[in-house]
Amino acid sequence: MGERRGKVQKGVRFFIPSDLPGGEPKGKAPENNVLDVARIEQPPYIPPILPPSKPAYPESRQTVTTANHLSESDFSDDDDLTTARSVLDSRQPLSQPRRARRVTFYRNGDPHWKGVNFAINNKRIRNMEALLILLSEKIPLPYGVRHVYTLGGKRLTDLSELEHGKSYVCASGEMVKGVDYGRKTERYWHNRKPTAGRRRGENYLYKEDPVDRISIDSRQSMMSDQLSPRSKPRVITIISNTHRDSRGKILLNPRTSQNFEDILRDMTGAIKMTNPPIEALYTFSTEQKVQGFGQLFREFRDCDIFIACGSEALRRGPPSSEGYKSDTHAHVHHERPAIKQSRKTQTPQTQQMNGYVSRSDSGEDDLPSPPSEAYRPRRRSVQSNATQTDIDVDPKPLDDIGDNSMDTSGAQVSDPYVSTPIASEDDVVRMTIHGRRQTFFRPTSYDKTYVNPGSRPSKKLKLEWVYGYRGYDARDNLCVLPSGELMYFVATVVVMYNPRKETQRHYLGHTEDIQCMSHHPSEQYVATGQMAGQLPDAHAHIRVWDHVSLNTLAVIGLDTFQNGICCLGFSKQNHGQYLMAVDEGDNHVLSVWDWQADKIVAKTKTHPDTVVLGAFHPHEDSILITAGKQHMYFWKMVGGKILRDKKSGVFEGEKPKFITGMEFSAAGDVITGDSSGNILVWSRDDNNIFNLQHAIMRAHEKSVFTLRMLSDGTLLSGGGVDRKLVAWDSLRGYIPAKAERQLSEANGGIRTIVEQNAGQADGLLYLATSNNLIIQGSLQTKFTTVIQGHSEELWALAVHPHEHAFLTAGYDNHVCLWSSATHKLLWRVSVEKPCLSATFSPNGALAVVGTTVGLFVALNAYDGSLVASFQVGTEQLDAIRFSPDGSLLAMGSHDNTIYLFSVLDDGRTFRKAALLKGHKNFLTHIDWSSDGRYLQSVDGDYELLFWKVDENRRENPAVTRDVTWHTQTCILGYNVLGIWPARENGIDINTVCRSESGDLLAVGDSQGFLKLYRYPSTQKKAQSHQWKMCSSNVTSVKFLYDDGYLLTTGGMDAALMQWAVQATEGINRNRAKRY
């Protein structure tokens, strides 16, 4: 989920504190209820007593005075000399003191890191573990400092291996070799005498490596010119466009030789992004785009905060007020990439352009092999990049592993062997999860003979229904199959919906979100293209498949395409032998494939700006057209090459900003719609040049998203902003046909137009809209809804306690109640603000949703009518849950507080009962105990706390070890240890849900994976069934009350899916076969 970032003051030489903070007094539990081995083994730390007149960190000094350098004369008359002597005596060595070893540590893989100097003394730093902890606080690495290497690549395992005056490299995983550490960076500016403020006895601490020495005179000569206000360095703060609580501080050098694009790429490592690298900066207050590096020192010199965007558009709206945390345990929790608020925090980090550049270590340690049956140690310690676990092992054979093969239903299983249970002799488990030390207590009633809790469950999931449609950012993704089925895609799934039978079939061959599709001229085959994912093996590619059998026929371009695929199109004249595709990479490469032979026929670069459309000419396969931002190009394929026809497609006046729609007439004319609302007709003359023949100016208010030529010569155009469907008579010079319809604002703009019965004169149409709806009707009849769903991010999901119904609420301000039996929408209401949490009362009569502004709304669950609303602070409500008896309502807020409300008058009245404060970060998950006496909660820093509700206080985790929890949605706990990866893989766990029967656990993560585990899952590397649901977050998972179905939601995709829970042998294996 993220990485820990901390601010490091560079160039300061200092001593490591003598000891880590001491343990608590004997018999008293630590305040945070976490036992740490390092704290138990070391004596309490006695801080040095310093006179008030001598500050601990004087500005003119670069060292910290310790008690070893003090004498009685250093204390004022008011000091307690008795205490002072005892401190001095305790610090005097019994033998000749050993001089500290001064060493320098560098950051793995970063040649620009200036290094951090430490004075190492075995008396102050007792072991390697203590050193790693301190280095993690000073050197920002994605997963903390796990290893120390020599410059030659040797890994150190003991403090005695550190040599005075040497340099070392700190890493989370494997060391990056071939880097000239500490040699390529700019040196510190010197503005005072090098020896100022030093004591003679401390000069050895400042002795510089001759290789690192630079001429002070040379530096002074470089700085001899007076800096003007515009040329002085400045510090700016950048905020991630997709993760608004991810921030980084950047030190800009006005004299850098880098261009603006390189500087933006260097900034990328400071923040969390969905689409790295940074491609644009916008001012935070006015949202103006920064065009060049000089503007940061001129026009925007008064702006200190900027929004960093990747390939996505700027998301307008205020960021989270949570900001970033300064806590030493702060790290990135995978958040809701929200339009208003975010669910991720990150400690700010300062970077120096043309100096220090942040980057992530990708090295990983090999996992230990499983112990043999002949010998298994009584206690062993397993360490990895993500998790450190002390494990007690009973000397008995390993449990049966079971079948590790890939099942034909498409489940991808995890690592094959099952390791030993995570349990110890004292029933305490200690783990480090994303930089936070965790302690979990095993229930005293835990059955040690439980049969292999780390094995895959005996049940699996089968996708039964996909709600909604993807229209907010897609085009031409709806078509009617010969069977009458509607074909469209949502997330990674291609849906074939039969409106007459109200059934769905699904093609599940893709592993990332689908971006485009094309129907073969034979109407039997379909080509779909997916985007590239964030994982190494998630490549952009095209799949050609049979929509009848759902068999994959070809997989194209696994090593060819970069970020994704803009558009696809089959050739017409050669019966679909060729398939054209435009890459989403920087050059937007146009490639033509012989898809059956899996080879490229020809390719060429198109345009550096965005390409929106592309197709073969229907009358000639050698002619292709591509269009997008301020361009429309005609291409001719000749002799294995694609050449641009520069005489065709020339605009007479100003070019439109975007070409947004394209269609062909029966005569072969090319018809385009643009972002200015114009419709242009391009005809081919005797010289085979396409010239502008007709122009319908201002046909729509703004963008013409889609065009469709009907068989009778009528051209239909669909507008985005004006939501109009307009008819034009192409046989009479494209004059208006006096037929026009305007959709309601709730429907949104028109994205795609499809004939319901192609070739017939009934005029029935399907329209796909930008609000993720599919409606049917005609220019003469009323349009009715066929497919509907949410149009913006979807985070809130709740299931009815005793009905086959569930509730969703999203950032589109809509709250919807669905029937899981009929897949129909029962009711939909609008609320004032975006929603991101929801719950039902135990009797099912009340539904409560939490919003992004601290307002919760109570609705009648049967008709959606408003019952009550209450303002709870100003921060978003991330988690909301009724107590089992319905008398209390708990809400976890972004202000780090749990609010408890008494529920009165059958839910018509809510009265604030208590506030539970103790978390240092925003709340993410809440669970009640079955008796309603306890709460467990998790926050954005992965801190699990327990609460005694009737006393409004925190409870010791050891006390709650035997508590039975009414639900299990918290992502931390003894019973869910097995879901955490054995090594850091960049995937965060967003949501979990235990089945009502208590034997299954559903998990959703940040990469779109849905996993199914046994419950409890108490073994490291527990096995699971998994499916790739979408490319963004799986935001919520919930079992229905009878465990017959599992509901899942996806964030950015607004994807809502229903999965049938079936026994392994009972799953019908009619899904798509993988190629």
TrEMBL record:
Residues 101-182, 234-320 form the Doublecortin domain. This is Echinoderm microtubule-associated protein-like 2 isoform X2. Residues 45-55 have a biased composition (Pro residues). Keywords: Cytoplasm, Cytoskeleton, Repeat, WD repeat. Its main location: cytoplasm. It comes from Branchiostoma belcheri (Amphioxus). WD repeats lie at residues 697-729, 787-828, 916-957. GO terms for molecular function: microtubule binding. It is found in: Cytoplasm, Cytoskeleton. InterPro entries: Beta-prop_EML-like_2nd, Beta-prop_EML_1st, Doublecortin_dom, Doublecortin_dom_sf, HELP, Quinoprotein_ADH-like_sf, WD40/YVTN_repeat-like_dom_sf, WD40_repeat_dom_sf. GO terms for cellular component: mitotic spindle. One of its GO terms (biological process) is microtubule cytoskeleton organization. PROSITE patterns: DC, WD_REPEATS_2, WD_REPEATS_REGION. Belongs to the WD repeat EMAP family. Residues 60-70, 344-360 have a biased composition (Polar residues). Residues 1-33, 45-80, 314-418 are annotated as: Disordered. Residues 324-338 have a biased composition (Basic and acidic residues).
